[in-house]
Design a protein that fits this description.
Glycoprotein, Type 4 Pilin, 2 domains, three-stranded antiparallel β-sheet, 3 helices, 9% strand
Length: 159
């Protein structure tokens, strides 16, 4: 009931604003025509309100995604680990062994430099156990310290 009343008065407000805007615009266009002036851009109050609401929604979405999704770093890092594993497997199928250093998969391309950093801009811990069959790939997690609770191990951890 209260929502209906609020909606009714909101509609009334928008109608009044729209009516007064159309009168102002009509008077402005008459003045421009009379004095041979260029047309001034006039934006309806409804369009301004909708634009401001859209801007607020976008800002809230950006803010809420960083505050209400604490696992975003974990999921992004896991995705990156999967991509690195694919590159390591591709390199192994091409050359027959895993690279000694992780930066070898970037092929000294400065655009791929960030591909060996996790979500928190820490370098992945990478160690080759056996050139032909195994390696360790670990993200040091949010704290940037190896062998702590927040470390993210490779999903294809090889022994």
């Amino acid at each position: 009931m209260i929502e209906d009343i609020a909606l009714f008065f909101g509609e009334l407000f928008f109608w009044r604003e729209d009516y007064s805007f159309s009168k102002r615009k009509k008077a402005r266009r008459a003045l421009e025509k009379e004095q041979n002036l260029p047309k001034k851009l006039m934006i309806s109050p409804i369009v301004i309100v909708i634009g401001v609401l859209l801007l607020i929604v976008v800002v809230l979405k950006l803010v809420s995604s960083s505050y209400f999704n604490p696992n975003k770093g974990i999921s992004k890092t896991s995705e990156k680990i999967t991509k690195i594993e694919l590159l390591l497997e591709k390199r192994k199928s091409t050359l027959g062994e895993y690279p000694i250093e992780l930066k070898a998969i970037t092929k000294n391309n400065p655009l791929k430099k960030r591909s060996i950093l996790d979500y928190w801009n820490n370098k992945f811990h990478y160690k080759v156990i056996d050139k032909d069959s195994s390696y360790i790939l670990i993200s040091k997690g949010k704290d940037g310290i190896l062998n702590t609770e927040d470390d993210i191990l490779s999903t294809k951890f090889k022994h």
